[in-house]
Amino acid sequence: MVNTGEINGSSNLMDFLDEPIPDVGTYEDFHTIDWLREKSRDTDRHRKITSKSKESIWEFIKGLLEAWSGWVVMLLIGLLAGTLAGVIDLAVDWMTDLKEGICLEGFWYSHEQCCWTSNETTFDDRDKCPKWQKWSELMINQGEGPSAYILNYFLYILWALLFAFLAVSLVRVFAPYACGSGIPEIKTILSGFIIRGYLGKWTLLIKTVTLVLVVSSGLSLGKEGPSVHVACCCGNLFSSLFSKYSKNEAKRREVLSAAAAVGVSVAFGAPIGGVLFSLEEVSYYFPLKTLWRSFFAALVAAFTLRSINPFGNSRLVLFYVEYHTPWYMAELFPFILLGVFGGLWGTLFIRCNIAWCRRRKTTSLGKYPVLEVIAVTAITAIIAYPNPYTRRSTSELISELFNDCGALESSQLCDYINDLNMTRPVDDIPDRPAGPGVYTAMWQLALALIFKIIITIFTFGMKIPSGLFIPSIAVGAIAGRIVGVGVEQLAYHNHDWIIFRNWCRPGADCVTPGLYAMVGAAACLGGVTRMTVSLVVIMFELTGGLEYIVPLMAAAVTSKWVADAFGKEGIYEAHIHLKGYPFLDVKDEFTHRTLATDVMRPRRGEPPLSVLTQDNMTVEDVETLIKDTDYNGFPVVVSRDSERLIGFAQRRELIIAIKNARQRHDGVVSNSIIYFTEDPPELPANSPHPLKLRRILNLSPFTVTDHTPMETVVDIFRKLGLRQCLVTRSGRLLGIITKKDVLRHMAQMANQDPESIMFN
Amino acid sequence: MVNTGEINGSSNLMDFLDEPIPDVGTYEDFHTIDWLREKSRDTDRHRKITSKSKESIWEFIKGLLEAWSGWVVMLLIGLLAGTLAGVIDLAVDWMTDLKEGICLEGFWYSHEQCCWTSNETTFDDRDKCPKWQKWSELMINQGEGPSAYILNYFLYILWALLFAFLAVSLVRVFAPYACGSGIPEIKTILSGFIIRGYLGKWTLLIKTVTLVLVVSSGLSLGKEGPSVHVACCCGNLFSSLFSKYSKNEAKRREVLSAAAAVGVSVAFGAPIGGVLFSLEEVSYYFPLKTLWRSFFAALVAAFTLRSINPFGNSRLVLFYVEYHTPWYMAELFPFILLGVFGGLWGTLFIRCNIAWCRRRKTTSLGKYPVLEVIAVTAITAIIAYPNPYTRRSTSELISELFNDCGALESSQLCDYINDLNMTRPVDDIPDRPAGPGVYTAMWQLALALIFKIIITIFTFGMKIPSGLFIPSIAVGAIAGRIVGVGVEQLAYHNHDWIIFRNWCRPGADCVTPGLYAMVGAAACLGGVTRMTVSLVVIMFELTGGLEYIVPLMAAAVTSKWVADAFGKEGIYEAHIHLKGYPFLDVKDEFTHRTLATDVMRPRRGEPPLSVLTQDNMTVEDVETLIKDTDYNGFPVVVSRDSERLIGFAQRRELIIAIKNARQRHDGVVSNSIIYFTEDPPELPANSPHPLKLRRILNLSPFTVTDHTPMETVVDIFRKLGLRQCLVTRSGRLLGIITKKDVLRHMAQMANQDPESIMFN
After folding, report:
1. Which residues of chain A make contact with B704, given a CB cutoff of 8 A?
2. Interchain proximity A545–B544, CB inside 8 Å
3. How many helices (H) and strands (E) does chain A have?
4. In the 8-state DSSP scheme, what is residue B703?
């Protein structure tokens, strides 16, 4: 209370530390953020702006702009992500066709665009459009025949290899983070982890370009996962324009959650499904305000994409289907069978893919990523070309499999034997016996199924952008279509069986094989990703009717149950574990009976906890402690005897503050005493200047008692997004639990290797 | 460490307290639950069952049943709620028609059912079905004419009064909790509050019956809110069948969240919208597992309802519409205007309704609920009958307003002047000039609008079940249709204006007044409830197309912005505040700069905190403390000097444990010492038996430091669902913050009366 002039003077001298110290409040790469602190910083910021905005009109306008910046960012993300998705679609179309031939009118036209403008486009003549020339027609003037076939085959492989080589080289040289689907990393980032550059401009550019290349190269991968990554890069880009988002890691994650929704929205044209996907699968902290904004961004993106109109049908959705027949209760049985298949496929894929990725990581295989990509591309191209169902792009294949056979359908899959005196309307074609085309198609599809299953396991995880949705959907759609045609023919040829008698009389249109394909797709996608509600909603948006929600749900539920029986982890969680990221899954339930005291450090027998005392450590003591340990922070106590906790200081901020003080103020020397108290005591005149560091002290560190059950601790870490938590017993500091400790303990309890958690 | 025989003996004597004490772990009425404790109890339970299930096959099967019970409960809720909704719809149909006439073939047929069976049902003859007799036809053999009109008018009022009187009497006598919409209370219950009987069997029965009565009586109210309450009662009913849910308040709330989704799902036939409504508007704690189950329950309910088929069109949704025309950018202007109208209506409604409800509460008006209901019903019936748009049931009105005028439409609203040589297909009718019928309809609709706006304010909150969705939608739909017809006629008569020239040439079908009605409905519903995503999704499910999502969203966003500018509270939050429930809204942002120390009790100048010490208080001391204070719990400290916290004991459990010990064990007398320590010390032989109460002690009470910002404290209370939190400074106990303290502080900071928060 008694302030002498000298103390006043010295406290003035220390006041420069009350200016913001640069870099305090930022995080190191590969570290976890402190959600509570970020949110409280944002509130401070908001408070300042609100109070300022009453001062002048200019400040008021600035306040308004600030309040609207969230919507502006969403608008911009929607526009850019929608545009990029459109561009990617157009480029993929063109380059996929480039593998087969070229448009004489202009090389930049895809097959479809080339023949749009030609006059001969009645439906049947579409394939005979003269402006589109296969390579063999152009080079050796032969459209058919063995030599033309071999030439086309050869060029197909060559183009594929060229695209794949370009892609993997670009990724390696310019943006190593552009590989993979990106969803595991985005989940981790959204849960509060820092990976610098993962959502950077280079990643955005390279991922967009290489995504086009790899999809066009015909590899068994999709653009859906990467398009989430691309959208998140857009989100990061635009959030750096507004200090509200760029300077606050928690707020930035709100934008990124919305961007993830945008990614799915443009990939499938399903804005509601996208928002739910972000909510269910990707996001960690998702306030309701963000839900609304995500929805807005997803809609903007979907409409931007539609105005670019890459699918040429002015539909919003990727696979638009319309069925004309209801489904019957008896069909639930094959639907559930498809669900079982989806669950088994999901388990098989996750196990094999993780085993292969682990092998890639641990053996010398990982040293030759370019070679690996080239080899897999070559194998894919060589096997894919002879089979018409694997030669074309996977989206086209899925589209055909989903479609019901109308009267005008010319595809092999619709080669049914027609009743000649059929006078029914176009929409309502009765079940018919399969013609030879259908049987051929079945064999080819079965081969395609086996090929897709095997090659996808080796493709996902290579050093190129690769999504999983499309291959999974393709596997499911093929299996579903085969089952669907099987049931259809069974019902046609045995319509007097009891199960068919009620709903499948001759002349009735009772089985829709396309619906089976869609159900199979949902089952397989569900088995791999373990999505539930969002999966059904995406499928619901694709079909646009509540009518088929029960079959879809039956398959999705079955698939999830079957897959969960073999292991709870979806593919994304499995990859997160493989990479050792500190991801605390909201869905994991922790049910073991351990207490905080079992998890905290120091453990029994270990040296005591490194703590700082509030008023008797010198700068040198602290620097030594920092040098000798690698902890991310130190609890500050009243004294080593009483061990009464007063706060927590972050390592990074201690270092920065001490460095800053030493540089900017000569009085601070090695034996200056560091004070974390409010009012440093009066010092003898000849003692070195004290250093007051209360400013960087977190005065409200989170504490739990040693008797707290670990499930509560896990809950607290999850819900409040803590980095660490201190453990006390009757007011005495006992130890510390970090997020890494929690994750390692959880891994141990689940009989996994705790050392697999690598980051803080 | 040294155990003498005597201590062993005495500790054996104390062991009976280690048996579960009955009622420990339950809560008192009108109190808040402790989420963390409930969840940890559930984990314990789960752990026990899992470990037991390895013992025998029987236990394994029990474990499986346990695991499946969640799905079984959902199935049962879906079935019962769907059935009830179907029954309610059928009964309402019949009783609404009963006000106008009766079916000669059987009095239990509604007008529509009566005429279904008749042979003359071509469309135009539907109104002339001879089996359906108006009351005047039956009683004085006159269908038309002034005396018939007066008789019908009189009987209409009489029936309405009878229904309303029956309803209000039933509610008053049997189930006072059955009144109102129920959503405010359900929100509060889901946030962790106990209101015994609110979801009981009597409430379920009486609410179902009275809901039918009040809706049939023609009052301006809907069945959507109450149907959420009814579904939650079903949820409560079925959750009491399984000890997993009945004995754990947190698990029970998971079921109730799903039941809320079911309620909306059956009310609108919108399962996805229902789940999102529950997520966005009603629920508090909504784990993803529940999301999936809610979706399942909502689907089961929707399909149960569809198989009952109360709307007679085998459609799932309440108002099925299909438009054939796209919307144009220029139309966004009237859509946004409708949004503004919706926001203003929302604000007006909330303000007036709350003012009126407050007046009812504080003046003698509240003493005559029956009279009030009778008076409002009489006024409603007298004014409603002469206007054809208010006479019919509100759902029918909305349905007609939403519909586009097809070629076959015979309603007055579709009385356009036809071009005689029209050869266009049925679906594509160009804009036409309005006929006299449309102009009459406009006047009548304008009057209906004013009437609905005023009467709804006085209706909502009376002592009868009353929902808000349908009246809000009706207000919006009327306003929207009027605007729609206005725009249509403007465009028709001025198609050379610049804004119309591009999209509204003569002969084009450019304006769909039904779409305007739907947009207006979304705006008004949004203004009153402040729903966002779920609102748009419900509307999207009703229309079944993404096409109109932009108009709907534009209106919903505008309406929310306009309404939020006048006050952030939706109608449900306003009613929660009015009733003083302790509801900590997840959406409210707390941005003030207060600290835990400003909120905790004891405040400066107040007597110190009532604490228990761990080993030197007698039974009598504790009993005195319990008698003298009304706190819900007491912190337990090492000693009054050190104030080191060791745990927290609930008042209720202290009382039960002491009572139990006194009854069951003679050794425990008034001067027995209560020990909260692990090992009570050795006592002299003649001292009274000690009472060991460590069992009821919560050893992991939640603590924060006095420097913790209140926004963090609010966040912790919200996310972890705490009842109270202790405040410490460097390990010393300083005070306590309860949920009520937090809510009162928030009210104070928002310049509201803190005394309005009435419960703990």
Report:
1. 700
2. yes
3. 29, 12
4. E
Q: Which of A587, A591, A644 sits opposite B730 (nearest CB)?
A: A644
* pLDDT at residue A4 tops 70: no
Tell me, yes or no, if A640 comes closer than 8 A to chain B by beta carbon. Answer: no
Whether A313 shows a pLDDT value over 60: the answer reads no
Q: Do domains A69-308 and A329-404+430-579 have the same CATH topology?
A: yes
Cα–Cα dist B312/B116, whole Å: 10
Which conformational region is residue A292 in: left (phi greater than 0), alpha (psi within -120 to 50 degrees), or beta?
Answer: alpha
Q: Where are the domains of chain A?
A: 69-308, 329-404+430-579, 596-756
CB A342 within 8 A of CB A518: no
Q: What CATH architecture does domain B70-94+178-318 belong to?
A: Orthogonal Bundle (1.10)
Q: pLDDT of B614-670, one tens digit each?
A: 888 888 899 999 898 888 889 999 888 888 888 999 888 888 888 888 888 777 888
Find where tokens 């009683």 sit. Answer: B139
CA distance A420 to chain B (A): 30
Name which of B288, B546, B716 is nearest A720 (Cβ-Cβ).
B716
Q: Across the interface, which of A287, A549, A591 has its CB nearest the CB of B47? A: A591
**Chain B residues with beta carbon closer than 8 angstroms to that of A546:** 271, 302, 316, 541, 544
Distance in angstroms (rounded) separating the CA atoms of residues B128 and B111 = 11
The fraction of chain A above a pLDDT of 70, given in percent, is 90
What CATH code is assigned to A69-308? 1.10.3080.10
How many beta-carbon contacts under 8 Å exist across A and B? 163
Q: Compare all CA atoms of chain A with the CA of B37 and give the residue at the minimum distance.
A: A712
Residue of A nearest to B270 (CA): A546
Task: Of A128-142, B12-26, B347-361, B513-527, give the lowest mean pLDDT range.
Answer: B12-26
CA distance A677 to chain B (A): 12
> pLDDT of B518-547, one tens digit each?
999 999 999 999 888 888 888 877 766 667
Asked if pLDDT for residue A315 goes beyond 80, the answer is no
- Which of chain A's residues have a Cβ under 8 Å away from the Cβ of B272? 272, 537, 540
Distances (CA, A) of B37 to A703, B27, B187, B283: 17, 12, 21, 19
The answer to whether the Cβ–Cβ distance between A546 and B316 falls below 8 Å is yes
Chain A nearest C-alpha distance from B174 (Å): 39
Q: How many CA atoms lie within 13 A of A297 on its CB side?
A: 36
* Burial profile A361-379: b = 16 or more Cβ within 10 angstroms, e = fewer: eeeeeeeebbebbbebbee
Both tokens of B662, joined, read 């006194």
What contacts 24+ positions apart, CB below 8 Å, involve A132-135? A132/A101, A132/A102, A132/A103, A132/A104, A133/A101, A133/A102, A133/A103, A133/A104, A134/A100, A134/A101, A135/A100, A135/A101, A135/A102
What are the chain A neighbours of B715 within 8 Å (beta carbons)?
36, 39, 720
d(CA A25, CA A45): 13
* Fold (CATH) for A329-404+430-579: Clc chloride channel (1.10.3080)
List strand residue ranges (DSSP E) for B338-482, in order: none
Is-cis flag, bond preceding B602, omega within 30?
yes
**CATH number assigned to the domain with residue range A596-756, chosen from the 4 options 3.40.50.280, 2.130.10.10, 3.10.580.20, 3.20.20.140:** 3.10.580.20
Chain A residues 341-370 with CB within 8 Å of chain B: none
Q: How far is CA A301 from the centre of its chain?
A: 17
B399 interfaces chain A, CB cutoff of 8 Å: no
Q: CA–CA distance from A355 to each of A66, A376, A457, A463, A574 (Å)? A: 49, 17, 10, 16, 11
CATH superfamily entry for domain B334-368+444-579: Clc chloride channel (1.10.3080.10)
What is the SS3 assignment for A662-681? HHHCCCCCCCCEEECCCCCC
pLDDT for res A227 = 92
